[in-house]
Amino acid sequence: MSRFPYIDTLKILEKWGPGCLFYGNGSSEDLEDLERRCESGERYLALFCEFPGNPLLRCPDLRRIRALANRFDFAVVVDETIGNFLNIHILPDADIVVSSLTKVFSGDSNVMGGSLIINPLGLYYHHLKPMMASEYEDNYWPEDALFMERNSRDFVSRISRINANAEAICSTLLASGWGSGPHCNFRGHD
Q1: What is the pTM of this model?
Q2: Which of 59, 95, 111, 165: disulfide with 122, CB 3.0–4.6 Å?
Q3: 6 CB burial (10 A radius; 0-12, 13-18, 19+)
């Protein structure tokens, strides 16, 4: 289930996985359908979602997803690239958290990278950790690692500026009457 997933995630799951059921909205109705399918005996290996989704910034109900995953034994994989780990704390509700480091984390558009975090308290940690230890191959180009580290040094201050700009845009849109659709409820950090 996902809301506008990164296209490669969806295509990889469709082409090389055992199949894929795509929920394009990540809504309560989608979760109700997933629950009905699971109750009728359908089984899933994992649920992939973005939090928030790109481009509409809608967020699936991670607590409900976690409860369904616990009840029906599937992993929860969350892409937090847009929200980023300074703004959202999703690890308790996920088995795996992935993020693109190419965009905001790097900030200079001159290097590519990604991250994967396995929740040490997650249901699948004891299966995933040894698999990653035996299968992982560090093929990150040394110069890319240097650029990623250098670029990320001001990540915290850039996120603070991005948050302030996002709040200003939301305030302007709400004041202009454009706030009748999705609402901006962001409140900055001190």
Answers
A1: 0.84
A2: 95
A3: middle
